[in-house]
Amino acid sequence: MAGVAVRRSGVPGGVRAVVLDLDGVLVDSLAVAREAFALAYAEVVGGGVAPVDEYCRHPGRYLPDVLRLMGLPAAMADPFVRESNRLAHLVTPVDGAADLLGVLRGRGIGLAVATGRSGVRARDLLGRLDLLRLVDHVVGSDEVARPKPAPDIVRRALELLDVAPADALMVGDAPSDLASARAAGVLAVAALWGESDPAALLAAGPDVTLSGLGELRPLCDPCPAPGTPPGDRPVAGGDGPAAPGRGPDGVDGHAG
To answer: Is this entry keyworded Cell division (predicted)?
Structure first.
C-alpha cells in the first residue's frame, strides 16, 4: 500500500491490540503546547526568547524529563499544565481518528492510549473530543514507574488489555515512542504525520512507517479474543494506579 513501509513481518497470528500515542497521533495539539511552553517560560524564567523549538525536539517525553534535559526549572510544569488546560479547546482530533478507532474496535481489537501526558489530563482531553468512548484504556506517564522511552507504559497498556506483546503494535510519532515499543517487544509503527521531524523518526528504525492514520487499517486483521464478541468489550477509560511519588494529576509534555 502506498505510504506504508514494513521492515519486518507482521504480528504473528494477527493484531489483537493497538497502543497509540496521543499528541500528534490522535490529536493535533502542537500549537497549544508551544504557546503553553512560551507562557510558562515567561512566568517562571522571565525575559528572553523561550526555547520553544528546542522543547519541540523532545516529543513524546514526560515534561519533567524534558525540563531536566533542557536545564530549565521544574517549576515551569505547573504553569505549563494550567495554560495547556486553558487552551485545550483549541486541540482538535487528527482527521479520521474517530472513524479509525471505531473500525478497529469493531474488529475486536483492544485499544489503549499510552501518552506523555498525565492520565487525568489525557482522559479529560479524549473526553472533550468524544474519543474516550472508543478506547479501552488510557495510561499516562504519571501512572508508570518510568515514562517513555522505557517500556513500562506499553507493558502496562498490554497488561490492561490482557494481550501478549507478540500480538500487538504501537503507533507513535517520536523516537521515544518507538524505543518504548521495541523494549516492550511490540511492533514499532512510526506516524509520519505527527510532531517529529520525519528524518529523525525514520532514523530511529521503525518496523513500519505510515504516512496517514488510515493506513493503520490494513495492518490490523480482525482477531477478537476467543469467545469475546466486540460489542461485549468494556467501554473506555480504565487506567493503572499512579506511580509512587507522583500526584494524581501529574504533569505532562505535549506529546505522549
So the answer is: no
Grid coordinates given for 121: 489530563
**Cβ within 8 Å of residue 20, ≥6 positions away:** 26, 111, 112, 113, 114, 135, 170, 171, 172
Amino acid at 108: G
The CA–CA distances, whole Å, from 194 to 14, 56, 212 equal 25, 12, 9
DSSP type of residue 23: B
The pLDDT tens digits of the residues spanning 245-254 come to: 333 344 444 5
Nearest one of 84, 144, 74 to 112, comparing CA atoms: 144
Angle between helices 152-161 and 175-184 (to 10 degrees): 60
78 classed as catalytic? no
Q: pLDDT tens digits, residue range 9-19? A: 455 458 999 99
* The pTM of the whole model exceeds 0.85: no
Residue 90 exposed, middle or buried by CB count within 10 Å (0-12, 13-18, 19+): exposed
- Cβ count near 248 (within 10 Å): 11
Rounded Cα–Cα distance for residues 25 and 212 (Å): 9
19, β-bridge pairs: 112, 170
Q: Quick one: angle between helices 30-44 and 77-86, nearest 10? A: 140
